[in-house]
Design brief:
Layout (H helix, E strand, L loop, with lengths): L2 H15 L5 H10 L6 H11 L1 E6 L2 E6 L6 H10 E6 L4 E5 L4 H10 L5 E6 L3 E6 L5 H13 L8
Antiparallel strand pairs: 1-2, 3-4, 4-6, 5-6
Helix pairs in contact: 4-5, 4-6
Length: about 160
């Protein structure tokens, strides 16, 4: 597991367990655990994880907002996916050349229970479902990503 993935997983755990009111507070918490991080890196992690600030009974604090996580990236991913096919046990996603790893990374970051994992080549992503019964749900998710791409006007 990469250092970035470990750091982001720990950020998710902390935000799920504690009420963190400031980025400085989270930086201090991470550094006390031996995770060195800059404010700029934390801001990028927040954007990728969909972290938002909310006002609650105990004041303002950060939360994970799964509906926001990666929403700005979803449109780009939709452009990069060319097609999807499956059999009884796996799903194959065809992408633009050189974009499979980015698409696989996005799928992994969705943290969907239905997706056990992905394997990426250059222009192909193998999506491994947790159960064969969830293949249709994963395909629907992928097709929705593809359909959210704004249509180009023809002249």
């Amino acid at each position: 597991m990469s250092a970035k993935l470990k750091r982001q997983n720990r950020i998710k755990e902390i935000l799920s367990d504690l009420q963190i009111a400031s980025q400085e507070q989270l930086v201090d918490k991470l550094e006390s655990e031996g995770i060195e991080i800059t404010q700029a890196t934390l801001s990028r992690d927040f954007a990728e994880l969909g972290v938002t600030r909310v006002s609650g009974e105990n004041g303002i604090h950060y939360i994970l907002n799964p509906t926001e996580a990666g929403s700005h990236i979803a449109k780009v991913i939709g452009f990069e996916i060319l097609g999807v096919a499956h059999n009884e046990s796996m799903i194959v996603v065809r992408t633009l050349a050189g974009r499979a790893q980015g698409v696989a990374f996005y799928f992994d970051r969705l943290n969907r229970q239905e997706i056990l994992g992905t394997v990426a080549g250059d222009d192909t992503v193998l999506v491994i479902p947790d159960k064969h019964i969830n293949i249709d749900a994963i395909i629907l998710l992928i097709k929705e990503l593809m359909m959210n791409v704004p249509k180009q006007k023809t002249i």
